Amino acid sequence: xxxxxxxxxxxxxxxxxxxxxxxxxxxxxxxxxxxxxxxxxxxxxxxxxxxxxxxxxxxxxxxxxxxxxxxxxxxxxxxxxxxxxxxxxxxxxxxxxxxxxxxxxxxxxxxxxxxxxxxxxxxxxxxxxxxxxxxxxxxxxxxxxxxxxxxxxxxxxxxxxxxxxxxxxxxxxxxx
Length: 176
Fold this sequence. Notes:
This protein is mainly β. 4% of the residues lie in helices and 41% in strands. The chain contains 1 helix and 10 strands. The strands form 2 sheets. A 5-stranded antiparallel beta sheet has the order 4-5-1-7-8, with no helix packed on it. A 5-stranded antiparallel beta sheet has the order 3-2-6-9-10. A hairpin with a 5-residue loop joins strand 9 (137-145) and strand 10 (151-160). The model has no long low-confidence stretch (mean pLDDT 88).
């Protein structure tokens, strides 16, 4: 008997980082999700979800947001519900950008930074941004449906040298 893959259901992307040392401006990171159409999976995003926003259909939302890191574990969380994702969507790219208020900052300037992707109690991937230490933004995951429509994850840690606004425009480019 063959097995049937149900694909991904409700997934969380969780982000952590420690607060700035005393006397330094707050360190502020954001999880950003860009949704691309099935007709143009590497074109312009249909929409982008970030900060405390949500997708128009409610399948992607921010359940937790931090502007300082606080140092209390995973302080920013994006929830993606692939079991409700419309078939018109062909690709979702999730990334993390560092706000550049108070001077240039890279992942290497942060302490205890990390991201995990989980489904229920199962960790699908995790990273500490060490391989993109000189970058100011990074893609972390790409989600695509297979031929049956079941959504799959591909980890894609790729660094960018952009502020959050520019990163939103370039994070899902054809080169990714």
